[in-house]
Write a structure and sequence with these properties.
Layout lengths: L2 H15 L26 E7 L2 H9 L4 E9 L8 H5 L6 E8 L6 H12 L7 E2 L2 E2 L5 E3 L4 H16 L10 E2 L5 E3 L7 H4 L4 H17 L11 H7 L1
Parallel strand pairs: 6-7
Antiparallel strand pairs: 1-3, 1-6, 2-3, 2-8, 4-5
Helix pairs in contact: 2-4, 2-7
Length: about 230
Amino acid sequence: MTVSARTSLLCLTLLMAGPSVAAEAGHAIPAAAADERPAQKTSAVAVFAGGCFWGVQGVFQHTTGVINAVSGYAGGEKNTADYNTVSDGDSGHAEAVQITYDPSKITYGKLLQIFFSVAHNPTQLNRQGPDTGTQYRSAIFPLNDEQAAVAKAYIAQLNGAKAFKNTVVTKVEAGKAFYPAESYHQDYMTRNPDEPYIAVNDLPKIGELKKYFPDSYRAKPVLVGVAKTNN
């Protein structure tokens, strides 16, 4: 399905179904009790999947300490990492975002807190808002054992504390490569703020980021195009 066809269909769904299918408001949750060890390096990488990558990318582009955030695919094979194949729902991939961050400014645990509280709803199984299918699942793709341990501990912490009304269904999927999405998906929220799908589902997440994490919010997003230019 092309992007224009997808957005037209989803906009129609939103109009017919009303606000009940829109992205839910941010949720105040405790910080991760377990976090990564202090790092001496200037950059690290995290990969999260939480529904349509446009909104997840947008949230982290507005997060202080994030150096770059790239939309893409994770969970499947390289030869199926393209939008049309992933959209069919049987590639094994999830729409994901690769986040490069400065560990001296933001930790992996803080990124997880933002991911769970404002970037998506981690209690929805194989869907987010109007988007349904395994390609929209909630998942974390750790790059090492430490990230996997922190993510699993945080999920257990949130469920144990009943931080959400329903159980967190996010899966930790180790050993999965990330593949960048097509260029037209990058910086999509910033480039298309007036598109109804973006206005209803994604822009409110930026407001929630500012509300719940004022110290981690930055008004000017770091964009993929700019990052590529500066590298």
